[in-house]
Amino acid sequence: MPNSSFYSALARSIAAGEPAAEPILTRASRTLGRNWRWLRPLTRRYLEAFGPETRPTQKDVVAFLITDAGLKAALRRHGSQVRIAEWLHEPAQMRPVEAARKWKIPEIESANALAEWLQLSASELGWFADLKMLAARLGKEELEGALGHYHYRILAKEGGSVRLIEAPKQRLKEMQGRILTGILENIPVHPAVHGFRKGRSIKTFAAPHVRQRVVLRMDLQDFFPSLRDGRVKAMFRMAGYPELVAKLLGGLCTNAAPRSLWRKVGVARDVPRMNDASDLYSRSHLPQGAPSSPALANICAYRMDCRLAGLAESAGAVYTRYADDLAFSGGEKFERSAEGFAIHAAAILMEEGFTVNHRKTRVMKRGVRQYLAGLVTNDRINVVREDFDRLKATLTNCVHYGAESQNRENHGAFRSHLEGRVGFVEAVNPAKGARLRRILEKIRW
């Protein structure tokens, strides 16, 4: 029976072909030095297995060949005569799927071309992409040194769980910014997406749900770490990049946090939760804190958005998403089915690799306050009254007793923090925002 090099050689020739039978058959024949009768049926089975979509990786094709019953039978009959006549390599050229052919993205067809595009040497590219995940094995003391590519900060979440902020160091951040502006911003996302998009905001996210009979709010748990490196690299393959280039781009945009990061933290916190967090973040994922992650998350969630939008339309509802916040709303038809709809939506999310935070799921009818991402949507978009009153009281106390007396959460830039909160109110309700602005300007810093 042929060894692994046989399958590897045949896989290269098959995977390198166009998504049509004749080019694949021609390359396979060249590899084997003969047009065996069993090659054409094998080619048809390959096309049925992978279709005309994204080119499969060489690993996927090898797995297909090893398990193909027809190839096994052919090799049993002719194994002693089958040999590798010529090793063929995948041509270095862009091959996007049909939907991606109009995307205005740079053609990068080799590792050297990617290094040049990012203004790096080939060795630097390999080090930053870290395809062997060496950084994931660093000790806690090494993370802030030259070997680590990220700064880490652990934040406590409501309910006792944690969120890990992974901020790339300057050079990697610049590369991710280059990938964002040069590639990702030129790839369309679903129209329902409002987070991290130019011209969109939480206000546009909430606007379609104003004055609806019922609003359903759902929240995704661990949105960024749920998007694994395999999905990211598949997206770059779909865009047309050769396998190695896609792997390198994916490596630059994903991260596996070292388990050593959690060791000392677990002593002071809930140890089982720290272990769960360590497992979650130790697998390569989109890091929350990287400039490329929001855009990649929106692109990778495209199929999920399509499915949820279709489900909403069938139920007489409208769907929007802002990062991990999902909103659905509608009239009488949707009101009758909202509870069951939430179950169907959760099932779709699970199939797409996401988890619903069920504690935050809310079905809000007209008789109660309907709110999304901190905005009230009952009659018009507005800030929550309690939040406005609390901020107004804080500003007033700053005027009378000094700003430091109100900085109870020890914000490093308390003035900027307050200005940001006032700016948020101004964007939502200019009249209320103007009232807060007048108080803010009276504070003596």
Order of helices and strands: HHHHHHHEEHHEHHHHHHEEHEEEEEHHH
The whole-angstrom Rg is 27 Å
The number of strands is 10
Shape label = globular
Largest sheet: 5 strands, antiparallel
C-alpha termini separation: 80 Å
Helix content: 40-55%
Count of helical segments? 19
Residues in β-strands, percent: 5-15%
Describe this structure in words.
This protein is of the alpha+beta class. Helices cover 47% and strands 10% of the residues. The protein has helices at residues 4-15, 21-32, 39-50, 58-67, 69-78, 111-117, 122-129, 170-182, 202-206, 229-238, 243-253, 265-268, 271-282, 293-300, 302-314, 332-351, 385-401, 414-428, 430-440, and strands spanning 150-156, 162-168, 214-221, 317-322, 325-330, 355-356, 362-365, 371-372, 375-376, 382-383. The strands form three sheets. Strands 3, 4, 5, 6 and 7 form a five-stranded antiparallel beta sheet that branches. Strands 8-9-10 form a three-stranded antiparallel beta sheet. A hairpin with a 5-residue loop joins strand 9 and strand 10. The radius of gyration is 27 Å and the shape is globular. The model has no long low-confidence stretch (mean pLDDT 90).
